[in-house]
Specification:
Length: 252
């Protein structure tokens, strides 16, 4: 089944991808709100009979979107479990893995040369760093709070810290001279350092050298100014959407 639109349901936002012959042509991130979805259907000129493929880690929103697609005359394939996807999940409890991590893995292994491991980094509501081995199996990874969750936790669990808005521009890791900048510096460093350490851990565990690293997610720009020696890092904003497209295509 080749869908016209693929949808990745996150914990904060709903990402839509418009499929082209060779991949994902356009990506938008929308709130979990049918009014925004209707406006996007109009903007992309999607008619009745449009084929959709949907999956994600926020089941109530995924169910709502799948039902909404059918209410506007679309047909929708809804991926509900990572065990439905055409990739081995070499972890303790395959059904418990976040399906977004597995969509990313599916896409990553389609982008690397044969017998090349891949590491995926998704910086969203949560950050995940995941390993796909040289045989193309998902081998697990790590999960930690994303930038916004860190900022909320500091506000919610301290007496004196304000909620700091994260901007697109990097703060840098040097000593900051006011509270808000100190929090932004700390969060930036937690993400950059955490991702760096986990990429190294995954590369050490990868059963073959030469792994490719893919970076995706709404806050992936946080990592843009930083470089890892000897590692090929590729920004792939549509990584999870590409994985949904591949999973749908594999349905036949
Ligand atoms: N340029 C940025 N710099 C720092 N933080 C950012 C930036 N862009 C987004 N963020 C923060 O990173 C977090 C993740 O961003 P966003 O919600 O866009 O990701 P997402 O991939 O859509 O997440 P999910 O898939 O979980 O819905 C948000 O909490 C947001 O506040
Ligand atoms: C970690 C998140 C929140 C990242 O979106 C998602 O993948 C998820 O809800 N995972 C479930 C638990 C797991 O992946 O092991
Ligand atoms: K995410």
């Amino acid at each position: 089944m080749l869908p016209a639109v693929v949808v990745d349901i996150g914990n904060t936002r709903v990402k839509w991808g418009r499929c082209a012959a060779d991949g994902i042509a356009d990506v938008v991130a929308l709130p979990p709100d049918p009014a925004a979805w209707a406006a996007q259907v109009a903007a992309w000129g999607l008619g009745r009979g449009t084929r959709w493929a949907v999956g994600g880690v926020n089941p109530p929103v995924a169910d709502a979107l799948a039902a909404w697609v059918e209410s506007i005359g679309g047909t929708c394939h809804h991926f509900r479990s990572p065990t439905e996807l055409p990739i081995p999940l070499l972890v303790d409890e395959p059904a418990a893995v976040g399906i977004d991590r597995v969509f990313g893995a599916l896409a990553a292994r389609s982008l690397v040369p044969p017998s090349t491991p891949a590491v995926t980094v998704d910086v969203g509501t949560a950050v995940t760093v995941n390993l796909v081995d040289a045989a193309g199996a998902f081998r697990g990874g790590a999960i930690f709070p994303g930038p916004r969750l860190m900022a909320l936790a500091l506000r919610d669990r301290t007496a004196q810290l304000p909620l700091v808005e994260l901007t697109g521009s990097p703060e840098g890791l040097g000593p900051a001279t006011n509270t808000a900048a100190a929090i932004r510096t700390g969060i930036e460093s937690a993400v950059v350092g955490g991702v760096h350490g986990l990429i190294c851990g995954a590369l050490d565990a990868a059963p073959a050298p030469g792994a490719w690293v893919f970076i995706t997610g709404g806050a992936a720009t946080v990592l843009a100014p930083y470089h890892l020696r000897d590692v090929t890092m590729t920004r792939e904003p549509a990584l999870n959407l590409l994985g949904i497209r591949l999973a749908a295509a594999a349905l036949g």
